[in-house]
Amino acid sequence: MFEYYSHMGPVMISKNRSAEMEVFVRVIEAGSLSEAGRQLGLSPSAVSKLISRLETRLGVRLLARTARALTATSEGEAYYDRSLQILADIDEADRAASQSAIPTGRLRVNASLVLGNHLLVPLLPEFFGRYPQILLDLTFTDDVIDIVEERADVAIRLGPLTNSGLKTRKLGESRRYVVAAPSYLARHGVPDTPQELADHNCLGFNFRRTLSPWRFAEDTVQRPLAGSAEVNNGETLRQLVLAGVGLGRLAAFHVGEDIVAGRLVRVLTDYDPRDPEEVHAVFVDKRHMSGRLRAFIDFLVEQVTPALSAVPDKSVSP
């Protein structure tokens, strides 16, 4: 029977499965039994016996050991992920029981470049003012990541969601506008109907979940369009449109200020299908939601809908 001091105080490992999980997690993160033992105040042999007993109880191998390396098996990786969630729940239960519980710790947030920079970042000063003890670990990329594999706590997504089994919470809705720079329209004219887009340079995206087909109120199917460039993120597309290269279909919150300032012009407004795309927070499971994740999502629900409804909707004539 082994005893060591964790964040919960002295623990008798043989009678405490959460303590077993803590030791196992420490072994995975330390990369060796000896280093995990050093951190926990246990001998390497004691850690090894504990891991062996845990594997015997579960009936699976959790670690693959060689002379030079120690790695988790597929079962070990799954057990590690679940252990992290359970230990986080225990920590959260401790904090929730305290009168002075305050959300703390690191929160890993993923979003597209456009959503992150144009929608999320302007809201963050208010969030940091409310929750100064939460550290946001922000990753903005237009690659759709697997939040379980990348161990992100929450991802912000625009548009249709795949049936991934993840939990979601709707944050608001955003429309898309077909826009062009005045310089482009001066050279090529203003399209009066969707059919005239065949004579225009319609810029789009190059990823599989493409938004390039544009819908219009009169169409029953998406209209395939062609242009001189395809890009992998909305900000690059915006810059090309601002430079007068062609037409683009972009989120209202992304180009609203450009429209009001006259840098971009909305076209084909009479054919606007008014089909808003939903903005969601995507996360693993509400049962394992930490206080910091709950605080962040509740904040987004409160702030994102007003931010989207405040998007300028002024149409400017070329």
TrEMBL record:
Supply the source organism for this entry: Rhizobium mongolense subsp. loessense
- Key word Transcription regulation present: yes
Q: What protein name applies here?
A: HTH-type transcriptional regulator TtuA
Alphabetically list the UniProt keywords.
Answer: DNA-binding, Transcription, Transcription regulation
What positions does the domain HTH lysR-type occupy? 21-73
Instruction: Give the family, as the similarity comment puts it.
Output: Belongs to the LysR transcriptional regulatory family.
Give the Gene3D superfamilies listed for this entry. Answer: 3.40.190.290, Winged helix-like DNA-binding domain superfamily/Winged helix DNA-binding domain
Q: Which GO terms describe its molecular function?
A: DNA-binding transcription factor activity; sequence-specific DNA binding
Q: What does this protein do?
A: Transcriptional regulator of the ttuABCDE tartrate utilization operon.
The alphabetized list of GO BP terms reads: DNA-templated transcription
